[in-house]
Target: YHYH domain-containing protein
Amino acid sequence: MFCSSHIFLLLTVIGLTSGAANNSYQNCLQIAARFATTVTNGPVADIRMTNGFKVTCPQIGNNSCPMPMTNGVCVFQQKLCVTCINGSTVRIRVQSNGLPRRCMIVFPTQKLAELNIDFEVNFNPDVSVNSPNQSPTTTAAVSALLCNVTNQGSVPATSAYNRSQISTPQDALAGVAVDGVEILNANSANLVDPFYPPAGYSPEGADQCISHPAPTSGEYHYHVASGCMLNPPAGNISGCGPDIGCLNSVANYSLKMFSSYKNLTVIGIAKDGHVIYGPYNSTGQQVTSGFDVCNGMFYDSIGNYAYFATTTYPYITGCFGPANYPNAKPNCTTNPAQSYTKSIYAASMSTSIGTTLNVSSSIISFITFFIIFTYMIIIN
Ligand SMILES: *[C@@H]1O[C@H](CO)[C@@H](O)[C@H](O)[C@H]1NC(C)=O
Ligand SMILES: *[C@@H]1O[C@H](CO)[C@@H](O)[C@H](O)[C@H]1NC(C)=O
Ligand SMILES: *[C@@H]1O[C@H](CO)[C@@H](O)[C@H](O)[C@H]1NC(C)=O
Ligand SMILES: *[C@@H]1O[C@H](CO)[C@@H](O)[C@H](O)[C@H]1NC(C)=O
Ligand SMILES: *[C@@H]1O[C@H](CO)[C@@H](O)[C@H](O)[C@H]1NC(C)=O
Ligand SMILES: *[C@@H]1O[C@H](CO)[C@@H](O)[C@H](O)[C@H]1NC(C)=O
Ligand SMILES: *[C@@H]1O[C@H](CO)[C@@H](O)[C@H](O)[C@H]1NC(C)=O
Ligand SMILES: *[C@@H]1O[C@H](CO)[C@@H](O)[C@H](O)[C@H]1NC(C)=O
Ligand SMILES: *[C@@H]1O[C@H](CO)[C@@H](O)[C@H](O)[C@H]1NC(C)=O
Ligand SMILES: *[C@@H]1O[C@H](CO)[C@@H](O)[C@H](O)[C@H]1NC(C)=O
Model:
């Protein structure tokens, strides 16, 4: 006889092997609601043409202000629209002008830019630990993959990413934070960790929100997680200096900014449609292991895969996963992960046949049905 616990076990077997992630329309709306949006009935034709959230910022001079000065003061608008598109595959569209809901520090000679970020991608697509998108094994291969500022210019086909024709080029874009600010690839334009570079390179500066504008394009961006994504400071902001414990310790400072968010906290969405969480998991512990070489992690038993903020390079996401768990480390940082290890969920979903022979999902499905079939014979 079939009783409910048998059905539950059966569903567990199916769930573990087919990896159904939380990617319903409702799931998408829950994530979209975490963003500091300024437009409700999206998508819009051009985010720059909308009315946003006004930020008055006397510390930004007239040469740097991204919008015309108002009575001699820099006033700009943060504009963000995140739309879930229902269908058999749920998609998410992210439209942002890239400006934050707070002041910024910018060199007087630098001009901040209003951007037109506009892309659409499958929301939290189903992926499998047994079908990695990347699998470098040597130091050279890990370095070639991670230490490439445009490696996230190509998004896995399963994400079906596309961007608006009139949008700002997005080759170095890794994702968008919940405040609408760009999360750029982990590397600087010099192809090294901006804050913990190897010998021969100087660390880059940043403001108290651990963000800075790109020198020529004026694109304001993050490379590491910042509490300002969730909780923008009011008024003038300061630099990433020793007074706030930021200088020379950017990674630890980043973690400290999440002391009031010791839970699973959405901080953004990656360009491949996977969610980006802060440094803590759902049981309130800091994520220090369980992630792959891209910084992605299978973090629950139903197969959800997401990027987590870490205090080690690549800090948010270094490539689009899922990926492997090599012994080698990248050469473009002095602050690499100690090791890459499978989470307990990734380990339980791994088929040893799958990883060694790379068996196709149809064979995995066959095995699933075989297990279910055997199970039905046993319980009857
Ligand atoms: C995913 O969905 C399951 C129910 O199917 C729910 O229990 C779980 O909390 C969801 N996880 C997230 C991260 O939304
Ligand atoms: C903010 O910075 C501007 C320009 O440096 C300065 O004039 C102003 O007094 C500052 N405001 C506060 C509240 O410190
Ligand atoms: C900026 O302000 C200075 C004086 O405060 C003025 O000389 C200059 O023309 C202004 N530049 C622009 C682009 O408005
Ligand atoms: C979303 O689409 C699915 C499948 O196409 C459908 O079953 C569901 O009712 C839709 N949900 C809403 C809220 O429209
Ligand atoms: C890392 O190694 C690659 C060769 O594998 C080399 O081309 C690159 O310059 C190295 N990068 C640094 C920062 O040493
Ligand atoms: C960096 O990654 C991009 C996108 O995958 C690729 O086209 C390019 O060849 C890579 N660059 C190097 C130096 O490997
Ligand atoms: C992506 O492609 C779809 C289908 O062609 C289109 O409806 C959508 O507008 C495109 N998204 C963007 C951001 O251009
Ligand atoms: C973080 O702080 C600890 C001491 O609390 C130190 O050992 C470690 O090197 C720091 N890490 C970084 C990346 O700055
Ligand atoms: C996480 O913690 C923050 C701050 O304490 C709180 O606002 C938020 O609701 C919590 N989120 C969850 C999912 O518990
Ligand atoms: C959270 O992380 C801790 C430490 O890595 C781990 O022991 C715990 O199982 C994780 N919680 C969940 C729900 O995965």
About this structure: The helical segments are 4-18, 25-32, 139-146, 250-256, 344-349, 352-357, 361-379.
